[in-house]
Amino acid sequence: MTLIFKQPTPDDKQAVLAFKEAYLSYYDETGIHGGAELAQFDKSNFDQWLDYVYAPAGTNTFGYDKVANDTFLIIKNDIVVGIVNIRHELTEFLLQFGGHIGYSTHPDFQGQGIAKNALAYALSVLKNKGVNKALITCNDNNIGSAKVIEANGGILENTVPFGEKTIRRYWILL
Q1: Is the per-residue pLDDT at 1 higher than 90?
Q2: What whole-number distance in Å separates Cα of residue 37 and Cα of residue 12?
Q3: Reading across the β-sheet that carries 4-6, which strands appear in turn?
Q4: Per-residue model confidence as pLDDT tens digits over 115-141
Q5: What structural domains and CATH numbers belong to the chain?
Q6: Spatial distance between the Cα atoms of 144 and 115, rounded to a whole number of angstroms
Q7: Residue 119 CB: number of other CB atoms within 10 A?
Q8: What is the C-alpha to C-alpha distance for residues 116 and 133, in angstroms, rounded to an integer?
């Protein structure tokens, strides 16, 4: 499988918005894991999403300070089949609930190894940034994500309550 990981540009607008629409219409969620707040933006303000993606650490657009991070689109045959956000550091909130990496796969491309490849790619980026241990989290009932994390070397540390959900916290040595 040939996947291309690239940072988003204005040229990606239609493909990114198609991914967003497919993801949010399929999943009963308000956000997109690893989407760098993509769900908050639409075709009228896509450039503002790009501004946010490339905004420096400390930017506070959504009520929290953004950490240093990279966002990559996952492209297969000119279609955005996934997205991954790689946080180079952790705030107290991310240490408990969010972790270093968030990723989502287009619902039409589930089960094709995209999430597994996204996580492996993100781990290599973190390693190159000098991070030697990555925290990855998922909802306790997201068995697919748990399997992806475990396939990439994730060791379950614990589970923690988060609102009405339970979060699994995994560590991966890089």
Answers
A1: no
A2: 16
A3: 4-6, 69-76, 79-87, 101-105
A4: 999 999 999 999 999 999 999 999 999
A5: 4-131 (3.40.630.30)
A6: 9
A7: 25
A8: 18
Structural tokens at position 160: 């923690």
**Tens digits of residue pLDDT in 29-86:** 779 999 999 999 999 999 999 999 999 999 999 999 999 999 999 999 999 999 999 9
How many CB atoms are located within 10 Å of the residue 53 CB? 21
Altogether, the residues listed in the chain come to a count of: 174
DSSP code per residue over the chain: ---EEE---GGGHHHHHHHHHHHHHHSS-SS-TTSTTGGG--TTSHHHHHHHHTPPTT--SSSSPPPSEEEEEEEETTEEEEEEEEESS--HHIIIIIBSEEEEE-GGGTTSSHHHHHHHHHHHHHHHTT--EEEEEEETT-HHHHHHHHHTT-EEEEEEEETTEEEEEEEEE-
- Residue written as token pair 């492996």: 120
Own/partner pairs, 123-130, CB within 8 angstroms, 24+ separation: 123/152, 123/172, 123/174, 125/70, 125/86, 126/86, 126/88, 126/100, 126/101, 126/174, 127/174, 129/88
